[in-house]
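tool=predict chain=A
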Amino acid sequence: SYAILAMLLAHHTGYEVGELVYEGHDVHLYSNHVEQAKEQLSRTTFPFPQLKINFKESIFDYELSDFELVGYQSHASIKAPIAV
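tool=predict ok
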């Protein structure tokens, strides 16, 4: 969502999209999810999809139908027990 917001702000202010820098807080991995994390990290990535936006006059005029994700691929889900 932040990447989409960055694209919209760049478009509406006349700038090019640069880098989106993310800093995570309270990021953790439960001990019973280690094997699932290893499986996730072992997967080969797919090519990045393209986001097509039907740009509007105002940043406040967008609807979900104005966005299209083209070429999205994903691996099968990885099941993990709920950590309580």
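The longest strand covers residues 50-53. The longest helix spans residues 2-13.
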